[in-house]
Design goal:
Oligomer: homotetramer
Number of strands of chain A: 12
Helix content of chain A: 40-55%
Number of helices of chain A: 15
Low-confidence stretches of chain A: none
Shape of chain A: globular
Largest interface: A-C, 58 and 58 residues
Structural class of chain A: alpha/beta
Largest sheet of chain A: 5 strands, parallel
Radius of gyration of chain A: 21 Å
Mean pLDDT of chain A: 96
């Protein structure tokens, strides 16, 4: 086996990516959802779908869950855990939902109404309990909070409310729990967002306590912003918690990882593996998918996502760090640059197929999934259940 | 009365702005809608709301309608017209809807399936009939068509389908009908949008026929794009059909006109009034609002919008064109620039209040509306009707 | 005198803005400079120009200087100070230059070559001495450092070099000296910039010591970024050092303050005055101009800039904070927003003219400057001196 | 030989890319130039450098020239042609320069002063004569014209002046001459640019005459704009004249082709080859490089550029059009997308090396160039000539 293949195999052994339960249900844009018979209805469906993704890709062993959608009040947590085990997956990051209820119209932890702030905090604290009950390590916090009009909000006052709410959330953590603080420049708030960029997430995380880290959603940046630099800085500051991967061209488009700019994902992976090579602990980074599968088949797109991620992770594993460092120190720009380009130009697909074969997986997960008949069966079964329960998909556009 | 006040009064006499029926119902983002008891349920409610806006502002005499939402199959068009008359408004631009039905998942006029293309065309042709039945002059076409992934679509083939569909739509027009062709760079399509910018709308309009014009939605541009230049060019090419006004900071945020960058709206209005002063026919431009009122009270925000528009239109009316032209020809930059700044710095609110008083309107439409008790009454009435009909607001977020 | 006028007069009493020496000499874009006879040649010319700006505006008492351009080796610092005094101005922020020499091709404090890093540090330490010699309080650091190609540089290694260099620079400060750390996303580095955003400047400043603060150049942001929120956060963190004001539509266009988006400058000023009203110390903020006057007359544009700044500062002073806070707490969006809009819509020019008259200034500084004949005289004098010295303006485009 | 290799060889046979004479001399940003001893001084040097690039890459047979810099008044055109022949290259696109002279401070064809407009037109007409004298087919027009401040210019008046100037320029063309009209959204004009986007270039080209085409500079777009869609539309309208290739992350960064987003260049090449496959004439498209080599060795970077272009062109040649079209018609998104991804993932470097060997070229042009000692020799020679002529590189930053 070539040294190159060997590097790829080792790199893939160390790379898993978590899929989100909400990626298996019907989603869409504010202009509408396009429904699929095979879309998951229940948490059982979602875990089944996640299980099938892991069965065919071998790199998606955990599932991020949305507290509100997946764990309704009084649900049997142990039953959910058994279902997960049955499908060969485990519960990953716990995502509270403090944006959907009508109460959150003007914010959650940043709401001027103390009762709403308390309600939001309570839900987060409950989520920490769920985290402990499901043996998850990650509390994943995203806030829609912000304002749409200049003057609407007292930006500094809201910063303080956030600092307080996050500190209290953090206090409930224990052991090696991690609180992930996500940032996003806009949407659904269109004038200011309380945690609008990595600098804000960094400050609030630092002030919350030692278990807080920044979560990088690749779609939550300004046009042209250098995401890999942010990743490198956060790693150096020991403040990188994890990722929500997706690709975009315009705003938070939530497209398939790497479908628009694969070289950028490669560079992010490169910064991480380079940091690992230099001795940083990169084992605790949570790699997660956060996409909106409105047009493609949901399980198919998730498999495609995992395959894209593996391809780009494998390419990044081929960078020759000694050579790169030498050229960087000598300011040999073209040669340094070509260290990255050579790795990116290499066709790593055969080595990845070999990795799959060694694990007893089909070399082409997408083909194998299609051959399995899973989607057809799920579509038939779920459509029937919807009919039986009188569920009508639709009427969900935002206008 | 000062010459300045006189200019403002005359300018306001020539400025109306159309409000959209969909701005009175519940709308939101893909993360959710926040419901209001006073939100309109039926077309009657919407016309009533539009009527009240016009009654207090005096500059919103027409209402843009969405064919699908406002004119369901077999509705009594004459009854709608009577309702409109009763509320003191008339039907404005007719907006077909070829994006909402599940059939349109992969496009309407640009769909690879000829049956879907025919369905979309049929709906547009029906909309032209509705236009004639309602004595509206404007067919307002916005297409969500596009693709989300590189390779998904044959861009050129879709261009041809669009050229064909628009030509056939145009053929159904008559007299002084106008077909407005809107462009938008992204959302809900995130890789390519078939009519993505003003150049594309221009080409397709030119190729459709003499009754086609470009519609400028102020929120449908790239970051930093000079909208007033596009407006000036379209005017010069006799291809400016009208506007969808709203403001934004990031994407198509659909905020209140002028709330983020009032000077830009002022400059757009300046280019139009300047063209009028030079002799261009600017009387047929359709000024329309297209906003998403998720947080503010819907009627209140519409009134605020009309007031903002009047304020900025009045400021633009104060530019001294002779002086401006002289400084421009002599490349006296600071003096030319200050012609615009002086107009913008002027407080035009007293003159606008005078205009209102001369029309028998309250000088502060927002205050007068609030004093009228309309919203409280509408909220009570509509909430009761929702209860009676078993309508549950909600469950409409896109996830 | 109305209460409103009184607020404006008080606000103007507390607002000065520093002009940059380099704004009086010939500048341009990479496509060329357009020369002006009246452009300053020497530091004496620049101080004379700055003095005239202050004489007519009354709000520009200090001048930012560029160490390399204004204080060549062995220059007589005391003579410069005497000249400044003669022209009625004082020396403001000291700006080292570690980007112009050929040595800095691959960086200054971030250069892989330790000799270059030492050279850059030495220049900065020398600048601190100059700062003390000139009794300036502000060391203003901008670094062009970064890379143009993926792989060119070790981002994390350069971060460490910067942390070290800034710490050593900070160690040389004393008393109430302030070290301003500026950020910029791109240009002249086009792949990554070592201090690329406010988060990076914040981290490096925090790690340097208690005399380090972040400098906000309004042109150094991503498209659509909410600058006033950054300002508000930095103020709350006691980390806002000052501003480089200019306006832009696209990149770092370095246009006249407020010429493109005056409402944004107003909102920045509002956040500062609001913080002051809440009790924050805002007296030490350094307001500076950093523009590139390629087309307009340099002194004229600087006067226009100061006038724009005063107008927007005065408008911001009119916000009713009690009312605003009340509406914000009650989530009365339209009313809260209108607190800002009402202040912005007010014509503050008469009150500013009054402020000028009370100080013995002409109510229209631009008109008075033009009437003074200063520019004509400077042009004649400087053209003659250029001829005498054999200086040929030009040949300076970047191609 | 595999079918795949065969496709690549054929594709490379049909792909040449022109290098610019100005890419061999010293260039920089407004913050400074970093000088290289080996930078070309004269047109002879530039043709020599271009010749060496072609000798090693085999795909750069022509050189774009800047009239002002390369053909000073009274230069011996035939001598230049002989020099070009000697170095194995020919003269490509002729680029007039109507932005550098002080007269053009407020524009060229759009200048309010008729004398300046005439001067600019005269220079362009002279350039057409030069074009005929050098047997070039392409007149390549880029205008810096625009304004920096709202109100500075009469946008519509300038549009008319441009229409007139371009028509007169076009009238001077003959035979199969092509007039390329370039667009650029900003820089050096920062408020409006007279030919700001492809729509404006399209309209002006259409109105000029049948020999006018649009020139696409890949760096001249808004953030996130879909360039390949513009290319596809222009091709379909028979209005695509050619390209200025370079890459960027932020503004018009003028970096090496494909260094930031190689997948985007691939997609542009794909749209072109797809159009060719469908029967469009794509043979007359002018592929040109327009980059600013401030940090890398100029000849080295040009060779790297040509190699990048070949790699991405070869990848694009591997798309299976039949398969792609089938999946597109069936709306099989993942499969359609994967047609592009499979081509892009393929390592085409071995096939390109084979193509080189078959032409007697070294498989690694960069390595071969370095081994040739050309740069060292040029540096020594040119440094000596600079010394002899008393030329001092430097003093060229824009401040």
């Amino acid at each position: 086996m070539s040294k190159q293949t060997d590097r790829i195999l080792k790199a893939l052994d160390q790379f898993n990516i978590e899929t989100p339960s909400w990626g298996y249900g019907d989603t869409g844009t504010r202009f509408g959802k396009f429904f699929q018979d095979a879309a998951a209805i229940t948490i059982d469906d979602k875990l089944s779908d996640a299980g099938i993704v892991h069965r065919f890709t071998g790199c998606c062993p955990s599932v991020a869950v949305h507290v509100l959608w997946d764990f309704p009040p009084k649900c049997d947590i142990n039953a959910v855990l058994r279902t997960a085990r049955k499908h060969g997956v485990r519960i990953g990051a716990i995502n509270p939902n403090v944006f959907q209820a009508q109460d959150y119209k003007f914010g959650s932890l940043g709401n001027p109404d103390p009762a709403v702030r308390r309600k939001a905090l309570r839900h987060i604290l409950d989520s920490v309990e769920l985290m402990h009950a499901t043996k998850s390590r990650f509390l994943s916090l995203w806030f829609a909070d912000g304002s749409c009009y200049p003057g609407q909000s007292d930006i500094v006052q809201r910063k303080e409310w956030f600092a307080e709410g996050l500190r209290k959330s953090h206090d409930k953590l224990r052991g090696n729990d991690i609180m992930l603080v996500e940032y996003k420049p806009f949407e659904p708030a269109f004038y200011h967002t309380d945690i609008g960029d990595w600098g804000m997430a960094y400050i609030l995380s630092r002030q919350s306590g030692k278990r807080a880290r920044v979560l990088v959603d690749t779609g939550h940046h300004y046009q042209s912003q250098n995401i890999e630099q942010i990743v490198a800085w956060l790693l150096d500051e020991n403040m990188l918690g994890g990722f929500h991967f997706n690709d975009r061209r315009y705003a938070d488009d939530d497209l398939t990882l790497g479908c628009i700019d694969p070289y950028q994902v490669f560079r992010i992976f490169h910064e991480i593996q380079l940091a690992g090579w230099k001795g940083k602990n990169i084992r605790d980074i949570a790699y997660m998918v956060d996409q909106c599968h409105n047009l493609k088949g949901k399980v198919e797109e998730t498999i495609q996502t995992a395959m894209n991620a593996q391809e780009l992770w494998a390419k990044a594993a081929l960078v020759d760090y000694d050579k790169l460092g030498r050229h960087q120190m000598r300011c040999e720009l073209i040669d340094a640059e070509n260290c990255l380009r050579a790795a990116f130009s290499t066709d790593v697909r055969p080595a990845i197929e070999l990795w799959r074969r060694k694990r007893g997986l089909h070399p082409d997960p997408l083909k194998a999934f299609r051959a399995s008949g899973y989607e057809r069966k799920a579509a038939k079964d779920r459509a029937a259940r919807r009919r039986a329960a009188g569920i009508v998909q639709g009427k969900s556009f935002a206008f």
